[in-house]
Amino acid sequence: QKEVEQDPGPLSVPEGAIVSLNCTYSNSAFQYFMWYRQYSRKGPELLMYTYSSGNKEDGRFTAQVDKSSKYISLFIRDSQPSDSATYLCAMNTGFQKLVFGTGTRLLVSP
Amino acid sequence: EADIYQTPRYLVIGTGKKITLECSQTMGHDKMYWYQQDPGMELHLIHYSYGVNSTEKGDLSSESTVSRIRTEHFPLTLESARPSHTSQYLCASSAMRGTGPSTNEKLFFGSGTQLSVL
């Protein structure tokens, strides 16, 4: 079983929709949670970073961590075609290297 | 925008050839990483370095080797390429210092090298 599970998609939504991207994990020692965005033929770029449980908001993006359920989410409000990319969750305990999800491909149509 | 560069962007090469994938960063970061990414799969760490003259193997076994003679440069070499080496190779760096635990480590990635071995 993988430590981090992520639905590969693709997830197709119309412009303006609220998007919810999710990851589940099995290691209860994970404390640091990140979301990377990867455009086609590019490397991942850090989008959001959270520590432990709770929410963090940055513009149209909100990252949410529920450690009791071992579940993290990334919400995108008012989605734009420029948000079309693959979104990878990543996490670690603080004592190991990052563990990545497989990524969810998001397609936002005009 | 992160200043980390990978060359070449695309490489198609025959079996048995020796290849070197280049990675350079201008941010003065001590830590550098090589990841392998296949379609629909998670990123796998194959090599990393804490600084000059430091190289470590990652979680995924790889037949490649790396060197770190200069802070800004972290090349990856395959002595004899095989079709099983076909993949995307991503280089990354981090501003975190030291060899200890990596807590809130944030990685900056290059655009990757797509390698195809025929």
Structural class label of chain B: mainly beta
- From the structure provided, what is the oligomeric state, counting identical versus distinct chains? heterodimer
Helix content of chain A: under 10%
Largest sheet of chain B: 7 strands, mixed
Structural class of chain A: mainly beta
Task: Outline the fold blueprint.
The complex is a heterodimer of chains A (110) and B (118).
Chain A lengths: L3 E2 L5 E4 L4 E7 L6 E7 L6 E7 L2 E5 L2 E6 L4 E6 L8 E8 L6 E2 L3 E6 L1
Parallel strand pairs in A: 2-11
Antiparallel strand pairs in A: 1-3, 3-8, 4-5, 4-9, 6-7, 7-8, 9-10, 9-11
Chain B lengths: L3 E4 L2 E4 L5 E7 L5 E7 L6 E6 L6 E2 L7 E2 L9 E3 L8 E8 L12 E3 L3 E5 L1
Parallel strand pairs in B: 2-11
Antiparallel strand pairs in B: 1-3, 3-8, 4-5, 4-9, 5-6, 7-8, 9-10, 9-11
Give a written overview of the molecule.
The complex is a heterodimer of chains A (110) and B (118). Chain A is mainly beta. Chain A has strands at 4-5, 11-14, 19-25, 32-38, 45-51, 54-58, 61-66, 71-76, 85-92, 99-100, 104-109. In chain B, strands 2, 4, 5, 6, 9, 10 and 11 form a seven-stranded mixed sheet that branches. The mean pLDDT of chain B is 89. The chains are: A mainly beta (110), B mainly beta (118). Chains A and B meet through strand 4, strand 5 and strand 10 of A and strand 9 and strand 10 of B.
Name the descriptors.
heterodimer, A: 110 residues, mainly beta, 6-stranded mixed beta sheet, 5-stranded antiparallel beta sheet, B: 118 residues, 4-stranded antiparallel beta sheet, 43% strand, globular
Give a short summary of the structure.
The complex is a heterodimer of chains A (110) and B (118). Chain A has 110 residues and is mostly beta strands.
